[in-house]
Design goal:
Layout: H1 4-12, E1 20-28, E2 35-42, H2 47-59, E3 65-69, E4 86-87, E5 101-109, H3 121-140, E6 147-150, E7 155-164, H4 169-180, E8 194-196, E9 201-202, E10 214-215, E11 217-220, H5 230-237, H6 258-264, E12 269-275, E13 278-283, E14 300-304, E15 310-314, H7 324-331, H8 396-407, H9 413-427, E16 432-433, E17 443-447, H10 456-467, H11 482-491, E18 494-499, H12 502-509, H13 518-533, E19 557-564, H14 566-572, H15 575-579, E20 586-590, H16 608-619, E21 635-636, H17 641-657, H18 666-669, H19 672-685, H20 696-719, H21 725-740, E22 743-744, H22 745-751, H23 757-769, E23 773-778, E24 788-793
Parallel strand pairs: 16-21, 17-19, 17-20, 18-19
Antiparallel strand pairs: 1-2, 1-3, 2-4, 3-8, 5-7, 6-7, 6-11, 9-10, 12-13, 13-14, 14-15, 22-24, 23-24
Helix pairs in contact: 1-2, 4-5, 8-9, 8-16, 9-10, 12-14, 17-19, 17-20, 19-20
């Protein structure tokens, strides 16, 4: 049972200290065919009781739905049912006149379907797509980030407002949105409106395979939830459709100035006239090249009637411009500056971020934060430590990290992050791809000392997969040969392989030929080959003399999560691994805390929200064919324009820098932009398959982690990776000198007891000759004393 979302919802709607009503409909009173409505009022001091009441209604009463009032109710209503629920009496639930003030505006995107039934997956996906479009349009016009929720059958956008209880603005805003977005429910305007208590089940009708019951959930809750600016509300409200003869919504306000709309977009007007009570503008049709004749003067026009309603049409069937929405889809949506008296801008510019993810340039403080855009980092990323913003990935990934932090005896959030990324990559495998064809197959490595809790994220993944009933995704934890791996991919082409002590495994498969079987050598080759095979519609994994044994796998999708000790992993990696791209194909993280304190924690199931999203991905059908078909068709996930620009800037910045980098760094950096694009796609998939898109927040978070992992690898290659023991000891010696600062020879001797004096002196001479360190002599501090030899790092 998902408790977290229930608690968060209760806290969300009681932030002002007001009273809330919990209401459940179609409850089994004493037998299934006797249904009732249960209701109760709770104050902010009794939210724990409210949570228990909601769970009781859902389980014991088998409620069709459990709801909560959006806006604070009169304190007097507590006497109806004080901090408990009971069967509601006639007129015993909240009315509009009993609401203190409006704190929320609910935009309910509800798919059209027969009454009394749950939505299909396709209907739910269409609702999410429209919710995403609606949220993006409002953001473009200065609105802040909303709370985003999945109601079970549709999608909700909840915006914070500050309005009197009897204000009509919300009603007009919803009418304006419904005129633009067909699935917006205009009935949610009333002050006493209830909404789903997120985290509870939605049970409309019977649950069938096509129309299943689902658990509602909170998808995104902004850290800095801001109230919608009054000017933004007014601007939207005055776009509500009006009755003929009125000058604005409900008799007040202004309409779009069509001439300004065209002028602001650089659209040339050929001529204009008055026509049937409308003002008509003739323009060059955007699709004129498809016309059979080029009579631009009269073929295409846009007009506005006396009530302010807008329309447009081109008389050529070939171009497709037949309505006002067709033209706004090409020229852009209406904005505040298109009105006679433009609404003052309230959204400021976001500080510019260097493409490589370094210190941002100063910028003015903004009033409203852009939707899905994270706060700009004020200090450069520390390559040795992940900060909290790395873990704030909405959906499965972020919730898995939270779950891990709460219930792991020794929490290792960095390892939980990479493990859950690999998990999402496997479940979305073969179903989605970037616009450039990249898939979600990644190899993630989590490094931590022995006994520090590195095995727990792997166990969390297994628990999540098991609870979702999808154990077919789990591959062998210690594959024995390439043939065994190929067999597993034949049975399950999208595979999650979790390998403990991955350093030993790779050292075994890549050791000297005399010590390694041909099967293990071939297995390592297959691992490398499969990083690119995910885009191959006809991968032939092995050639056989007997052609009857030939196997072909379409888009094989292998995701690996491996763990190892820090020293063990870097000791098994060689400089050749960096040069041939073996290392760059991995996303590596190291534990933030090497030995977190052991805690007494209770066991807990994986949160239901995580399980539900994994189930959604397992059921998701991409393209026209079933995913179990031999040749599945992956959905191309679009990038928001800002996300596309950010990822492009990142790639271009790396390409510009590569010729200037040391040659040993280039193979690592050259794959960084592809890693960022894959991570951005995985972060989008973390929220579920419906209405999936890559946002700017996804791009920013992906670039941050890809850069961090790349810098970590370069740092470790320079300081720890070596081809033999001599090189490895030299790097240890160099690290000692760097960490200490100017290091006296006595300190170096004490810290390098593993070296003989002869070897140590030779290494110091080699490092001085290579201009990596410099040697200096400090005179004795007193007469008769000895001079001191000191070594300092140059690089």
């Amino acid at each position: 049972m998902e408790l977290t979302d229930i608690q968060r919802t209760l806290q969300l709607f009681s932030t002002d200290g007001g009273l809330i009503e919990i209401r459940a409909i179609d409850c089994w009173d004493w037998k299934p065919d006797v249904l009732s409505t249960q209701s109760g009022y709770f104050d902010v001091q009794h939210l724990a009781e409210a949570k228990q009441a909601a769970l009781h209604l859902e389980t014991s009463f088998h409620a069709a739905g459990v709801y909560i009032t959006l806006n604070p109710t009169s304190p007097d209503l507590l006497a109806r049912s004080a901090n408990r629920v009971k069967k509601a009496q006639r007129d015993g639930t909240t009315k509009d006149g009993e609401i203190v003030s409006r704190r929320w505006m609910l935009i309910d995107i509800d798919p059209a379907r027969p009454a009394g039934v749950s939505s299909t997956d396709a209907e739910l996906a269409a609702a999410q797509a429209q919710a995403t479009e609606c949220q993006g349009w409002l953001h473009e016009n200065g609105w802040p980030s909303p709370v985003v929720a999945m109601s079970g059958n549709g999608w909700h956008l909840l915006y914070r407002v500050d309005l009197p209880a009897d204000d009509k603005t919300v009603e007009n805003c919803l009418k304006a949105l419904a005129a633009k977005f067909s699935q917006v429910d205009t009935s949610t305007f009333n002050a006493a409106r209830i909404t789903k208590l997120y985290g509870t089940m939605a049970r409309k009708g019977d649950s069938t395979n096509d129309r299943p019951h689902r658990r509602s959930r909170l998808v995104e809750v902004p850290d800095n939830l801001q109230v919608v600016h009054p000017d933004c509300l007014e601007w939207l409200a005055r776009q509500a459709p009006r009755k003929p003869g009125t000058s604005g919504p409900q008799g007040g306000g202004d309409s779009v100035d069509l001439a300004s709309y065209l002028r602001n977009r650089g659209v040339s007007v050929i001529r204009e006239d008055d026509w049937n009570g409308s003002r008509r503008f003739f323009i060059r049709c955007p699709g004129i090249e498809s016309h059979s004749s080029k009579n631009a003067d009269s073929d295409c026009s846009i007009w506005q009637d006396a009530s302010g309603m807008l329309a447009g049409k081109c008389f050529h069937d070939s171009c497709g411009f037949k309505s006002w929405s067709d033209f706004t889809g090409y020229f852009g949506q209406v904005k505040p500056e298109d009105f006679p008296n433009p609404v003052p801008a309230v959204a400021g510019d976001i500080p510019a971020v260097d493409p490589m993810g370094e210190e941002p340039t100063p910028a003015p403080t903004v009033t409203i934060t852009a939707v899905n855009r994270p706060a700009v980092r004020k200090t450069p990323v520390d390559p040795n430590k992940m900060t909290d913003d790395f873990y704030e990935i909405p959906g499965v990934i972020g919730e898995m990290v939270k779950f891990h932090k709460l219930f792991a005896p020794r929490p290792q959030p960095a390892l939980s992050l990479i493990a859950s990324e690999v998990l999402v990559g496997a479940f979305s495998g073969r179903k989605i791809q970037t616009e450039s064809g990249l898939r979600t197959n990644i190899y993630g490595i989590g490094l931590a000392p022995s006994g520090s809790g590195k095995e727990r994220p792997r166990a969390d993944n297994i628990a999540a997969v098991t609870q979702a009933g999808c154990t077919q995704y789990l591959g062998a934890e210690n594959p024995s040969s390439d043939v065994a791996l190929i067999g597993e991919l034949e049975d399950q082409p999208s595979l999650l392989m979790q390998i403990d002590e991955v350093a030993k495994f790779f050292a075994t498969t890549r050791g000297p030929s005399a010590n390694v079987s041909s099967h293990l050598k071939a297995l390592n080759t297959k691992f490398l080959e499969l990083t690119g095979a995910a885009q191959n519609p006809a991968w032939v994994p092995k050639s056989w003399a007997d052609r009857s044994k030939k196997k072909t796998i379409a888009f094989p999708h292998l995701c690996i999560y491996g763990t190892s000790t820090i020293e063990g992993f870097w000791n098994c990696v060689t400089n050749a691994d960096a040069a041939d791209g073996f290392l760059a194909r991995m996303l590596v993280v190291e534990a933030e805390e090497h030995h977190p304190r052991l805690r007494m924690v209770k066991s807990s199931p994986v949160p239901q929200m995580i399980v539900d999203i994994l189930k959604d991905w397992d059921r998701f059908v991409a393209g026209k064919g079933d995913m179990s078909d031999k040749e599945p068709s992956a959905v191309i996930v679009p990038n928001d324009p800002d996300a596309f620009d950010r990822l492009s800037d990142h790639m271009n910045a790396i390409e510009d820098q590569l010729p200037k980098d040391p040659k040993e760094h280039r193979p690592i950096w050259s794959r960084c932009s592809a890693s960022a694009q894959k991570l951005a796609l995985i972060f989008a998939a973390s929220r579920g398959p419906f209405g999936i898109r890559v946002t700017l927040a996804d791009a920013e978070a992906a670039i941050r982690q890809a850069n961090w992992s790349t810098r970590l690898m370069i740092n470790r290659i320079f300081s720890q990776v070596a081809d033999n023991d001599e090189d490895r000891n030299k790097k240890k010696l160099l690290k000692i000198i760097r960490d200490h600062g100017p290091a006296p020879l006595s300190v170096i001797t004490r810290k390098t007891q593993f070296l003989t004096k002869y070897v140590r002196d030779g290494m110091l001479k080699d490092l001085v000759a290579a201009e990596l360190i410099e040697e200096a002599t400090l005179p004795a501090s007193k007469r008769g004393g000895q001079d001191t030899t000191v070594y300092s790092s140059i690089a």
